[in-house]
Amino acid sequence: MSSPNSALPPSLPAGDPSRPASARRQLLRALGWAVAVVAAGCAAFVAYAAIYPERMPLAIGAVVEDITGANPQPVALHVPPSQPLSAVALLGKQIFNDPSLSASGKQSCASCHSPEHAYGPPNDLSVQLGGPHMTDAGYRPPPSLAYLYRQAPFSIGPDQNDMDAAPVTLDQLATAAGGTQRAVKTAGVAPAAPALVPQGGLFWDGRASTLQDQAIGPMLNPVEMANKSTGEVVHKLLNAKYLDQFKQLFGDGVINQPDLLVDEAMFAVGRYQFEDPSFHRFASKYDYWLQGKARLTQAEMRGLRLFNDPDKANCAGCHLSKPTADHLPPLFTDTQYEALGVPRNRNLAINKDRNFYDMGVCGPFRDDAATLTQYCGMFLTPTLRNVATRHAFFHNGVYHDLKQVMDFYNLRNTSPEKIYPLDAAGKPEKYDDLPAKYHANIDVADAPFDRKLGEKPAMTDDEIQDIIAFMNTLTDGYKP
Fold first, then answer.
1. What is the assigned CATH class of domain 282-480?
2. Which of 95, 112, 129, 366 could form a Cys-Cys staple with 142, CB 3.0–4.6 A?
3. In this structure, what are the phi and psi dihedrals at residue 156, rounded to the nearest 5 degrees?
4. How far is CA 431 from the centre of its chain?
5. Where in the cell is it found (predicted)?
6. Residue 161's pLDDT is what?
7. In which residue ranges of the chain is CATH 1.10.760.10 found?
8. pTM
9. Model pLDDT for residues 295-318, shown as the tens digit of each residue
10. Cα distances (Å, whole numbers) of residue 39 to 60, 69, 180, 305, 345
């Protein structure tokens, strides 16, 4: 029998028994080189992305964020310029910090709106103490005075600046909005139609339209600076060490016109808040991240995504997190009003009266909207900038840390027994800080409030911690 190689044509060499092993070694070497080249390429890409994240294509932005913590699409934010204060604003600064303008002689605007605490309260009290002897409990926790320079006056429905007709009353606007279903707020999605809801204004209920209007409120509030009348404020201004500055700025005759003196004083306070950059610093880690000058940690990045996720936390549905189309930094509020159904704070002195209810827009501290009952229980959505520095949350200060706040959002509907007190039968007294006839005003449509009793909450505890980590990036004073 002939050998296998004897049948091959003369032009082909006989097979080498060692050749298959040699070929395999060559193939493995080639594959090894290929893997090494790919690995080197990936390493080079990662290194390039880490150094130049802003040069990465938008389509792989999320990958870049995961790898580097950087913003792959940085924005040049348009922030208010820092410049010397005008003479009027400097006068306003003195008034803002002057405790002699209070009945007690111990409380200034800065006492409740501390510059060292992002112009919010300096302690963890639900409400601040004031009054003639500094012993009277306030009605609501002071909101921050920071980031109000873009706040519009109170209105209902579409921006009144878009209307060509004569001024429209609140009753007329509310009537026009009455048949319109409330728009669901979804993070990252603009409403299909203008939101026919209360918006703008200052204080928790929007009753002041300007910073000047807001400034006089605490001076006449009996549980705050507690002046009994504008006449008392005038008397104190006439004895202030800065009276000569009033004369220089507004003329000698201002001291003989009490109403004008008070108006100019409050105008000066408003100018101080508008001009001084410390009221709108835009100096948080998130601001630097937006501009490509800082990188978020893994937890912060996860928190940002959950914050913006319309099916999870959905925070950005009301607390807008993206710059405007003209690159203005986000204020983390849509300046609209919501009825959230937070539990009653039974520790407040004002709530000792079981028949008393603070219903926000429709009273009791404003009376021009008392008949607009579809807005009872609604309060202004505050900015979340510097929120991690606060220790009293919501209009009644019922919560004192961000974990409690997030648990409320997460469990209000799915496990209300963990949020509200229980009645004699062991049933949670849901929405106990609003009369039952107004419970229909409370938001049950927007995530995470769209979950039902007994369903899985929108967020896990780990996810809540990530969101809190992100909210800590909204604190001013970050050093990149």
1. mainly alpha
2. 112
3. -125, 130
4. 23
5. Cell envelope
6. 41
7. 87-149+205-279, 282-480
8. 0.84
9. 999 999 999 999 999 999 999 999
10. 19, 22, 58, 29, 59
The encoded tokens of residue 260 equal: 């004008």
pLDDT-flagged residues of the chain (< 50): 2, 4-9, 11-14, 58-59, 159-167, 192
What is the bridge-based pairing of β-strands 337-338 and 379-380?
antiparallel
Neighbours of 7 (CB within 10 A): 7
Q: Decide: 52 and 34 in contact? Cβ < 8 Å.
A: no
Return the pLDDT at 50: 55
CA angle 282, 287, 291 (to 5 degrees): 125
Quick one: tokens of 430? 């849901």
CA-based torsion, 206, 210, 215, 216: positive or negative: negative
Q: Rounded to the nearest 10 degrees, what angle do helices 243-250 and 258-275 cross at?
A: 90
Per-residue model confidence (pLDDT) at position 253 = 95
DSSP assignment of 407-475: HHHHHTTT-GGGTS-B-TTS-B-TTTTS-GGGGGGS--SSTTTT--TTSPPSS-HHHHHHHHHHHGGG-
- Contact assessment for residue 277 and residue 82, using Cβ atoms and an 8 Å cutoff: yes
Amino acid occupying residue 455 = E
Q: Mean pLDDT in the chain? A: 89
- The answer to whether the beta carbons of residues 458 and 447 sit under 8 Å apart is yes
